[in-house]
UniProtKB/TrEMBL annotation, chains A, B:
It comes from the Bacteria. Keywords: FAD, Flavoprotein, Oxidoreductase. The keyword Oxidoreductase applies. This is FAD-binding protein. Pfam families: FAD-oxidase_C, FAD_binding_4. Belongs to the FAD-binding oxidoreductase/transferase type 4 family. Its cofactor is FAD. Residues 37-216 form the FAD-binding PCMH-type domain. One of its GO terms (molecular function) is FAD binding. The lineage of its organism: Bacteria, Bacillati, Bacillota, Bacilli, Bacillales.
Amino acid sequence: MITENLIQSFQAICGIENVEYSNAARLAYSYDATANFQALPDLVLAPRNRDEVAAIVKMCAEHHIPIVPRGSGTNLSAGTSPSSGGVVLLFKNMNQILELDQENLTVTVQPGVITKTLIDYVEGLDLFYPPDPSSLKISTIGGNISENSGGLRGLKYGVTKDYVLGLEAVLPNGDIIRTGGKLAKDVAGYDLTSLLVGSEGTLAVITEATLKLIPKPPFKETILAMFQTLEEAAEAVSAILAARIIPTTLEFMDQGTVQVIEDYKQIGLPTHCEAVLLIEQDGPLESVEKDMDKMYQICSEHGAIELRKAESDEEAEDLRSARREALSALAKLRPTTILEDATVPRSNIAPMVREIIRIAAKYNVTIRTFGHAGDGNLHPTCLTDLRDKEEMERVEQAFEEIFHASIELGGTITGEHGVGEMKAPYLEWKIGEAGIQVMKAIKQGIDPMNIMNPGKMFAKSTKERLVMSNV
Amino acid sequence: MITENLIQSFQAICGIENVEYSNAARLAYSYDATANFQALPDLVLAPRNRDEVAAIVKMCAEHHIPIVPRGSGTNLSAGTSPSSGGVVLLFKNMNQILELDQENLTVTVQPGVITKTLIDYVEGLDLFYPPDPSSLKISTIGGNISENSGGLRGLKYGVTKDYVLGLEAVLPNGDIIRTGGKLAKDVAGYDLTSLLVGSEGTLAVITEATLKLIPKPPFKETILAMFQTLEEAAEAVSAILAARIIPTTLEFMDQGTVQVIEDYKQIGLPTHCEAVLLIEQDGPLESVEKDMDKMYQICSEHGAIELRKAESDEEAEDLRSARREALSALAKLRPTTILEDATVPRSNIAPMVREIIRIAAKYNVTIRTFGHAGDGNLHPTCLTDLRDKEEMERVEQAFEEIFHASIELGGTITGEHGVGEMKAPYLEWKIGEAGIQVMKAIKQGIDPMNIMNPGKMFAKSTKERLVMSNV
C-alpha cells in the first residue's frame, strides 16, 4: 500500500530521520496503553512544523492513507491504535512552549509538550494550568486536547476543554484552520475549538494550542478520611457539596485499591476500611482553612473512623501520589489491567460502586474501584490476564454490564478516557441513534474520505443494549 | 407559501390559540433588537412541549418552511429576524424550571425561562448561575444558549457555554437528541452540547437545558475608579491581572457613556475623566477585602484621580445598574442605536479604544464605548438615525473599519452578540475560508434543506477585507 516512492516523498517532506518504517518502529507504535488492541502502522512520521503536517496530510489524502495522530499513547480507549494501518504521526519534534503571555494569561504550545513540563513551567511563574490527568508525567498536551483529558482537579477547575482558548489544526484536505484566540469571549461562528477538543484525532491534526491560565492558588491542604462503609463515604461527599464547598480534589479509593497501594508504596495507608476519601482544597489561606475545618467536621459527622491531615507538603504529596499511582500499583497484581471510566452524577456514586461490586462477583472477576468522587468519575479497574480467553470473556461481559449500569444511573460510558476503538460499540447507548447520526454528518462533512484516525468513535456495529431489571 | 391546510395542521399540533398569523402578530415578530433588519414571518407558533416542537419541525421539513426559534428577541445581530419568512417559534409556553438538583448542583429548565427568573430562583437557594447578559431581565435561557451570551461576570466566571451541561434538542428532521447530562466529565463522542451552544438556531431547536450551578459567593464589593486618560485605565486593568487577581467584574466606560448615564440616572457619576472602571470582587470576605485593597492601591498607583467605594448594597447596585443601563441611556440620544461587540485580547483594550475614537472621527459619526475591560469585550455604540441614508453609509464604513481593527489586534468580530444576519458578511475575516468551509460542512450535514434559521451566520457573500496600514 505504501510504495518506495511514497516513502521518499514523506522523507522529502520531513527529513529522512523523521520517517521510520522498520519492523521495530512499526511494532513500537502498534499499540497504546489499552490492553488487547494492536495493529501495525505502515509508517511512523515525526513532522517538525505545521507546514510539514499539512504536506503529510495532503499526501495521505491523495493516496487515501489513514493518519493516526499520537501523543504519548497513554490513552485507555485504544484511541491511537493504528487499526487500519497507515501513518502514525508523532509530535516529538513539535514540543515547544511557544509563548507565555503574562498580560492575557495565556500560553501557546505545540502539541508535543509534556503536560507536566507545561504545568511546572507556568507554576514557576505563579500561574496555574489545572487539568492534571494521572498520566501527566508522560502525556502530551496534544493528546490531552484530543481526548479532552480530565484529572484530579476536575471537580473545582474543570477539564482540558475548559482551558483551550484557540487551536491551529490541519484539516483532512490539508487546509489550515485557526479557531478562537486569546479571547475570553468569542462567538464568531460555531464553536470549532470545542468540536476539535475531544474529537480523538478523527477530524483534524492539532498543530498548536492557546491555553488559558489562571493565578496559582496560594495555599493547599490535604486530608485523608477513612470510612467503614461505602455509603458513609458517599454521604460525606454529598454533604460536603451540599455545604456549598467545592474542593479541588475529592478522590475515592475502595479497600482493594488502598490495600494494593499500601503494599506497593508503604506509606502507612489504612487498609481496614471500606472506603477512603482524599480531600484537598486550595485558595487563599483563610478560605482553605475554613473549608478544610468544615470538611473535617462533615467527615466526622458522617462516620469517618479516622481522619489524617497532611502536616507537611511532603506528606500531602505522599497521599496524592498514592492516589495517582493507583493504576501502577494495581497493574502489578495480574498480567493485564483494564481501567475503565464509567461516570455517573455524583449523587449516584454509592449505588454505582455497589453495582460494580455486584457485577464483579456475578462474573467472578477482580475489579477494584477508585476515582474522582466529586465529579462521579469512577475508575473500575479489572485485574486479569489477556491469555485466558475464558476469563477475558467474563471481563468483557462485566464491563458491558457496568456501562449499562452507569447509563441507567444517568451517567456516561466514558468520563475522561474517550471512546476510541474500545468503546465505539457502546457509544450509541449514551448519545442515541440521533446523536450518532449527527456525529456521522459532521465526520462525513469534514473528513469525507475517512482518513483521520479511522475506526475510532464510529463502530461498525453497536452492541445491543442489555435488558435488566436489577439496576 | 403557507396554505390554510397547513395552518390547520399547525393548529392541530399546538392548539388554535398558539398559532398566530394576523398582520399585527407577524409585524410584532418581524424584527429583534437589531436596528435596520426586518422581515415578516408567515406564522408565529408557540408550542407547549418538546413533542409539539418535533411535530412542527417535521411539518416544516416536509414543506421546506424556514424555522426561526426566538427567545425574547433581545439579540443585537439580527439573529431572529425572519429574513426568509416562515415560522417564528416562541417559547412562552415552555418557560418552566423543571428541576433543581441540590446534590449535583444542576438546574434543568425549559428554553423560555427568563434569565433573571432563573438567577433569582437559584440565589434564593444560596446557589449561583453566573452568566448575566445586560438583557437578563427580558432575555430567555434558550436565547442565551443559542447566542452563547456573555455578561459582566464573564472575566471570572465564564459565559453561558461554561454552564450548559446537557441539552435536549429537536434536529431539522424532527429527531430528538439528548447531549451531556448531570455530569462534570463526559467525553462520549463529539461535544455536541458545545456545538449547539452559540449555533444561533441554525442547527436545532433547543427544548430543554441542564445547567451547572455553583455555590453563591458570600460577599461582594464594588468600587468605581476614574482615570484622566484611557491609557491609565487600561494600564490599571493590566496591573490588576498581572497581580494575579481575577475580579468578578472589570467594566469600562468612556467619558461619553458616563456623561449620558449620569444625565439619565443622576447618581453622581463623575463626568470629567476620560475613562471609568467599575470593579467588583466576590468570594469569601477575607479574600474580597484583600483583593479590593490591592485593586484600590493599583488604581491609585496608576493615576486614578478619584476612587469611590460603594458603602452599601444599594450604592453598589446603583453603580452596577448604571453600567447595565448604558445602552438604554445612550439610546435616548438619537433615533437609532447600533451596539457592537468587537472584542480584543485584554492587553489591547487601550489601542482598540483609541482606534474606535479615530475611526468615529474619520467618518464623522458619534460612537461611545463601554464594555467588559477584563475580557477585552468592548461595546462601541453608534448613535445615529436610520432615516439618514448618507449617515448610515458612514456608520457602516466605520463599523467595517472597527471590525477590521479588532481582527488586526488579535480579536474577533463578535464577543457575545453572535453573528446573525448582520455580521455574517464579516465572519470569514475571523475564521478564514477554511473555517467557513468546516461550518458549511456541519450545517449541510445536519440541516441539508437549510430550514433552520436560514440566512444567519452564513453570508451570501463575504465583505472584502480592508487593506490598511494604520492599525
